[in-house]
């Protein structure tokens, strides 16, 4: 009736909106990868080539390696491959991708996998092996792992009796960040047992300050820091053997051991007298990002923050991370001073090809030579490789993590949620932990996770 | 050339080769098409031009669509046929029911509120002195990606406790404090948090509704308006009897277009709450089940459900567009 001239205008307007969206979409596709390649002493140093040349002449051959490690952490990686490239004449093609964890499965299933992948979770290694595309590690790598790693590490990538990949880096999760200056001023001492930790928290709380700060928001992975807390307490209240049974679901997720562990965590995280320094009440833990929470120590609003060694990267450059600096960490103590369970994580190198050059490079990555080269090149990196000389670790927090990992009294256990089936480890455990923080009781939380475990 | 490119020059090279390939394919089609002439030839040419589109749609849309529907009848690993069990889960599991409830709230509120706000705004600023400036202001959010909008509003709703020297950093809570209230954790309590997320999409879509409706209002012939004025109508009567009936087809198109966008909402929920605190919607849950929980069956079922929900709206939308163009 009246509408006739309308449509062309509408279409023009529609076209305008659509193209605006397209331009913004395209702009988002730009990438910020600029390569910095400068040789340092460590990467230029010559190594003994015999272990690698015995695989044959691999000069001019190329090995592709695909990882989730991107700028700036990729530079020391690429640099640490140089001694191998120089002595064998092979080329390593490095590819870092932020969405590695979903893409590697897509690529393996589609039959287009890289030669090697750096996989950060044992659970994902299992998924990759189940695609049938991963190949078992060569004998040389297996020998290196027997020689340089605690045997717990080998079990994480041994599937149906076959060993699939050597560990690469490692991180320590059983750490509590604190301010050395505040400890000095307040006359506090670093606790060596769980009881002392509780006493210290009470002491700080009595001074009118909320001792702990915590944050679990992390996009769609919101909740994961609680899973670390619970695993740490499971190791301490139930012991490493029960912990293994719980992770592999030999005992139920909602059994008495797990209930006791989560309630112990609740003694800290759901205790209004303890949390959430500078950030609000218990519920505020759910909306505070894990990156932000610990910064309250610098602001003086909180005294203690439990988070892994990699948290050092969250403090800005002017903050000195050292025993005599602005902030440092201590080992989250065990039930008594002589029992030292350590919760940690790490990466594994999984191969999808068994050409000589791939095997040679795998062998190099599992050696003490590589671990020491890498340690000299990077900061914020450690390995549980026993051949690693702690003196090669430059910054104080790496040194602390290295010492904890290589302590003969320590009992290392890998992050449990990384080994559980995805429906639990990267879904129900996170979601239910978040609900637990915002008010859900312990029994309901654990029952819901147990229900989600794939039958 | 078809391997994954990692450096910028490689990516540019890859893009150029894709463009070359496209040009080559088009060249071949044009060449073949050029060899046909006459009346019968026109038909062949038309089919030839349709061929690439049909092929790409088949590979990129039809096949994955059918495959997803097929997968939705299988279990988490995609191995065992389980019939309609996944759909049963969607309509019985308490978590999934919350997801459905939220999706309904979104689909009811966003299109109507965004369209209403857009319409009122378009009428108010119509023929005023600041019209283009006022319209630009409301249209701006449309140029912001949903993720960016989510991040911006997350800061708006940010909470800091009422404690010592701690200062608010979120605008909404600061206003509450100025008015003498205590800061609230806006994104935690359901269903308030869902409503606050809905505000973000309305903020984005109102500009779209306003632009389209404004164009439609301007197209109302002046003689009708003048005739109405001579009859002595007041502002309300003008709106009720002249403006609204004239733009009614456009209103329907806007409502349905925004409705489709709302059904697919994902970015806002994922950026602002990650679907936690009972704010998840179907599109977010589908992603979560597929990629986080590794439950391909349930993920596919949710995607299929979303598809089924969108179809009637798309159908209605296309019918309306055709009808308004036929006039």
From TrEMBL, chain A:
InterPro entries: Bact_solute-bd_prot1 (IPR050490)
Entry keyword set: Signal, Transport
Organism: Paractinoplanes pyxinae
Similarity comment text for this entry: Belongs to the bacterial solute-binding protein 1 family.
Protein's name in the database: ABC transporter substrate-binding protein
Signal peptide: 1-27
């Amino acid at each position: 009736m009246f509408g006739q001239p309308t449509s062309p205008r509408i279409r023009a307007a529609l076209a305008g909106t659509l193209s605006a969206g397209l331009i913004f979409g395209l702009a988002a596709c730009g990438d910020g990868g600029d390569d910095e390649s400068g040789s340092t002493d460590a990467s230029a140093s010559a190594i003994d080539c015999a272990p690698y040349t015995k695989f044959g002449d691999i000069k001019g051959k190329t090995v592709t390696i695909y990882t989730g490690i991107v700028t700036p952490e990729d530079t020391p990686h690429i640099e640490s491959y140089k001694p191998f490239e120089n002595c064998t004449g092979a080329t390593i093609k490095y590819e870092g991708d932020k969405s590695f964890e979903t893409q590697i499965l897509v690529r393996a299933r589609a039959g287009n996998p890289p030669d090697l992948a750096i996989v950060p979770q044992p659970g994902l290694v299992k998924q990759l092996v189940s695609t049938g595309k991963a190949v078992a590690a060569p004998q040389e790598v297996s020998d290196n792992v027997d020689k340089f790693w605690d045997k717990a590490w080998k079990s994480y990538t041994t599937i149906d009796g076959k060993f699939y990949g050597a560990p690469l880096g490692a991180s320590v999760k059983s750490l509590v960040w604190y301010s050395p200056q505040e400890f000095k001023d307040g006359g506090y001492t670093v606790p060596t047992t769980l009881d002392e930790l509780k006493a210290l928290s009470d002491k700080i709380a009595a001074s009118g300050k909320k001792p702990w700060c915590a944050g679990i928001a992390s996009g769609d992975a919101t909740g994961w820091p609680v899973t670390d807390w619970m695993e740490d307490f499971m190791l301490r209240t139930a012991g490493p053997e029960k912990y293994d049974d719980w992770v592999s679901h030999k005992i139920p997720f909602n059994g008495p051991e797990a209930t006791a562990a989560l309630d112990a965590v609740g003694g800290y995280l759901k205790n209004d007298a303890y949390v959430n320094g500078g950030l609000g009440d218990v519920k505020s833990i759910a909306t505070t990002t894990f990156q932000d929470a610990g910064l309250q120590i610098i602001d003086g609003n909180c005294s203690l923050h439990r988070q892994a060694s990699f948290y050092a990267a969250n403090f800005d450059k002017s903050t000195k991370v050292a025993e005599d600096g602005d902030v440092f960490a201590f080992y989250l103590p065990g039930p008594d001073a002589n029992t030292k369970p350590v919760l940690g994580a790490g990466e594994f190198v999984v191969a999808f090809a068994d050409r000589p050059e791939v095997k040679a490079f795998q062998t190099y990555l599992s050696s003490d030579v590589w671990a020491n080269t890498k340690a000299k090149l990077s900061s914020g990196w450690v390995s549980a490789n026993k051949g690693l000389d702690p003196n090669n670790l430059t910054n104080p927090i790496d040194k602390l993590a290295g010492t904890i990992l290589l302590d003969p009294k320590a009992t290392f256990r890998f992050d449990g949620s990384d080994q559980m089936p995805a429906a639990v480890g990267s879904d129900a455990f996170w979601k239910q932990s978040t609900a637990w923080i915002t008010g859900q009781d312990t029994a309901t939380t654990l029952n819901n996770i147990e229900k989600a475990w794939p039958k | 050339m078809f391997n994954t490119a990692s450096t910028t020059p490689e990516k540019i090279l890859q893009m150029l080769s894709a463009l070359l390939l496209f040009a080559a394919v088009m060249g071949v089609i044009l060449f073949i098409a050029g060899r046909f002439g006459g009346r019968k030839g026109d038909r062949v040419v038309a089919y030839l031009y349709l061929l690439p589109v049909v092929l790409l749609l088949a590979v990129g849309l039809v096949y994955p669509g059918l495959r997803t529907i097929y997968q939705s009848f299988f279990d988490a690993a995609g191995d065992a046929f389980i019939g309609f069990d996944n759909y049963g889960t969607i309509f019985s599991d308490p978590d999934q029911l919350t997801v459905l409830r939220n999706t309904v709230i979104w689909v009811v509120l966003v299109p109507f509120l965004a369209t209403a706000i857009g319409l009122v705004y378009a009428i108010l600023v119509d023929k005023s002195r600041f019209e283009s400036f006022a319209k630009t202001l409301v249209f701006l959010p449309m140029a912001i990606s949903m993720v960016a909008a989510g991040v911006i509003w997350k800061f708006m709703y940010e909470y800091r406790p009422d404690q010592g020297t701690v200062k608010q950093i979120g605008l909404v809570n600061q206003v509450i404090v100025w008015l003498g209230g205590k800061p609230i954790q806006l994104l935690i309590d359901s269903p308030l948090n869902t409503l606050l997320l809905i505000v973000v999409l309305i903020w984005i879509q109102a500009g779209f509704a306003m632009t389209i409706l404004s164009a439609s209002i301007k197209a109302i012939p002046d003689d009708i308006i003048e005739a109405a004025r001579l009859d002595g109508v007041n502002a309300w009567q003008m709106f009720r009897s002249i403006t609204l009936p004239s733009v009614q087809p456009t209103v329907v198109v806007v409502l349905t277009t925004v409705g489709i966008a709302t059904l697919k909402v994902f970015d806002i929920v994922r950026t602002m709450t990650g679907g936690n605190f009972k704010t998840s919607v179907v599109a977010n849950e589908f992603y979560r089940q597929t990629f986080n929980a590794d439950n391909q069956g349930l993920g596919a079922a949710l995607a299929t459900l979303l598809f089924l929900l969108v179809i009637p709206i798309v159908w209605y939308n296309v019918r309306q567009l055709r009808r308004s163009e036929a006039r």
